[in-house]
Amino acid sequence: MGTDEFVSSFKYAFISLAAAVGLYATLLGLLTTSTFQSHVVYLHAVQLTWFKDLNVPEIFGFLKNQVTPFSIKTPDDEQLYAWQVLPIELYRKNELALTAEPTGFVSDIASRLSFQLLRDDPEARLIIHMHGAAGTLASGYRVPNYRALSAGHPGKIHVLAFDYRGFGRSTGLPSESGLIQDALAVTNWAINVAGIPSSRIVIFGQSMGTAASIAVSHHFAVQSPPTIFAGTVLVAPFVNVPTVVSSYRVAGILPVLSPLARFPALFNYLLGFIRDKWATNERIAQFVRSNEINEEKYRLTMIHAEDDRYIPSHHTQLLFWHAVNGSVPVGITYDELEERKAESQVGLGAAGTVMEWRTDYGVIREEILKNGLHEVVMGYPVVTMAVMRHFEAADPSFAR
Ligand SMILES: *[C@@H]1O[C@H](CO)[C@@H](O)[C@H](O)[C@H]1NC(C)=O
Residue ranges of the AB hydrolase-1 domain (predicted)? Predict the structure, then answer.
């Protein structure tokens, strides 16, 4: 290689490096703006069900009128698009009457048989479903998820799914306070309009939905008098957003912020720009603590697969610790809890491990699966079991 060639290839390498650094810096700059950030955190523009009409749930594999599309209004006037999903055995018993009804979006849900079957059955149970980032209530593994949720008692367990503001057909733009308002509005609808008492409701969330689920469970637990649900089930939860982005890799490969971890001042400076922090670690501890103080019975299950590439299962171990710590008046360190786990954690071989922490009032359960990725796990029988365990604990006659 001649000197000129050397100089020009060096120049070329330098220019590419400068361009890469410039691009990275631009990306970081964009990330500090709240609009771009909300697109990255919520991915609400990534619909995944493009060109498919959510008002025709049959497209996604449901039976005719098994799903009733309708909307729920929030106190700040957003319209949330929702689905009431009938469990299969209840559908079978009412098949003729259901198929005879009109199809499509319903403006007065009280006029529909599906709603009456929920409202008028004193034994009906309801799952309030809070989905993860991106997509709509019809995308990905959410449909098999609805089946798993009601599989334990397919004559009784209804599912209420919805899209947060800014997602799918719902109005508005997402934000932490907005999504919490949405989750509260849907829960209030279930209690006040459908008339289902909280003891017959399980709050379910996956990924980003776990943060909304805990926010709702916490919100109701700290009211006076408190409202306690039959249980809260979290699949693939995370400690908080700053902890996720610190280790987040785009497509599981490209690190976003972790290269900067070597520069703590810059790193923390950038983390300071995160608008919606979703501090589940704090909310979960406060949820547990207030239930212990109020002597309310509560149940919480966290499920996480070891091969989850988006949110490592370590997040569940940390949250389990925060929750358990909330139940111990003097607190417990992470390492102390690890020692207790070594004594009483149940090994299930290839199915993973289970650790249950019981107090006089509550049950906090951690299930670490070997397999299930970030989303596939939603359709697994562990989800069915978690739901049944909570409903049975809230009312032992349910599982007989
Ligand atoms: C654990 O609980 C104790 C006692 O309530 C509290 O002082 C401590 O801050 C908690 N630790 C964490 C990490 O939240």
Answer: 128-318
